């Protein structure tokens, strides 16, 4: 019964977060986040401040290729602050061009090069980059009461998560991560892994038969036991390679969005990812 109520409440919260056109009371900061991790960082930094943090990518959707509805474009134009990562969502890049309310949250992050030019936008999978994102948001909202203290607490939580990951991955014997798309470069760099993405930087890219064969070969020669798939993307290619090589598959979440109805958050998803990695990468 309690579980049902929680789910119902969560459904309501998500619905209200994702709702368009509802006018928050005056004096409330209107913040629009491009996708889930930025929404999470903003909520942590704002704490109980009078703010509404909406998200452009609805729960259950994959954020790379979102299109904005006219209503969302209006929301972007009217917001006090729009949080985004340039190069991640082209439709949003176009919508915020030249707007002074847009904040590039990667401003203080040294971005890794993308596999085929440009930079890799998947910065949020290193908790210390989440700290940097929180700091950039807090700097912009410095006059909002409570933000400095909440940012400190968020930073401490991300430090703790990073320490948990460092300890949990210190003894892994398999260092190659075979993942469904190239979302994990920052995580790999932080914790001593090498990423091999089956698809490219975007999950919608169909991998070529040559790439699938190359990955299957790598899995066999390196004795890789686990191929990671993700929640919001069809796992069939990962399953095909696993079936071909005798490897198993496991869910490793790039945290690009929240699965519809899930009560998980960034920290709990990262902790679940750590347990998955510890098993899949033979960490003692
Ligand atoms: Zn991605």
TrEMBL record:
<dbReference type="InterPro" id="IPR006127">
    <property type="entry name" value="ZnuA-like"/>
</dbReference>
<dbReference type="Pfam" id="PF01297">
    <property type="entry name" value="ZnuA"/>
</dbReference>
<dbReference type="InterPro" id="IPR050492">
    <property type="entry name" value="Bact_metal-bind_prot9"/>
</dbReference>
<keyword id="KW-0813">Transport</keyword>
<dbReference type="GO" id="GO:0030001">
    <property type="term" value="P:metal ion transport"/>
</dbReference>
<dbReference type="GO" id="GO:0046872">
    <property type="term" value="F:metal ion binding"/>
</dbReference>
<keyword id="KW-0732">Signal</keyword>
<comment type="similarity">
    <text>Belongs to the bacterial solute-binding protein 9 family.</text>
</comment>
<protein>
    <submittedName>
        <fullName>Unannotated protein</fullName>
    </submittedName>
</protein>
């Amino acid at each position: 019964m309690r579980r049902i109520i929680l789910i119902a409440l969560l459904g309501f919260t998500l619905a209200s977060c994702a709702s368009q056109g509802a006018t928050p009371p005056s004096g409330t900061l209107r913040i629009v986040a491009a996708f889930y991790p930025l929404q999470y960082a903003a909520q942590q930094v704002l704490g109980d401040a009078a703010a509404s943090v909406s998200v452009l990518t609805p729960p259950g959707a994959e954020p790379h290729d979102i299109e904005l509805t006219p209503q969302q474009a209006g929301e972007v134009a009217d917001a006090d602050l729009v949080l985004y990562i340039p190069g991640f969502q082209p439709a949003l890049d176009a919508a915020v061009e030249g707007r002074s309310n847009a904040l590039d949250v990667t401003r203080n992050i040294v971005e890794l090069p993308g596999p085929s030019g440009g930079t890799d936008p998947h910065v949020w999978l290193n908790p210390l980059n989440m700290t940097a994102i929180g700091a950039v948001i807090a700097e912009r909202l410095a006059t909002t009461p409570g933000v400095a203290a909440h940012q400190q607490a968020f930073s401490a939580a991300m430090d703790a998560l990073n320490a948990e990951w460092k300890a949990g991955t210190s003894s892994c014997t398999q260092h190659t991560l075979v993942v469904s798309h190239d979302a994990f470069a920052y995580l790999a760099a932080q914790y001593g892994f090498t990423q091999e993405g089956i698809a490219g930087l975007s999950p919608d890219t169909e991998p070529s038969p040559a790439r699938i064969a190359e990955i299957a070969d790598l899995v066999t020669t390196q004795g890789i036991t686990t191929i990671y798939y993700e929640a919001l993307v069809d796992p069939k290619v990962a399953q095909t390679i696993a079936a071909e090589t005798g490897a198993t598959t496991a869910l490793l979440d790039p945290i690009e969005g929240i699965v519809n109805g899930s009560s998980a958050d960034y920290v709990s998803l990262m902790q679940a990812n750590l347990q998955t990695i510890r098993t899949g990468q033979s960490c003692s």
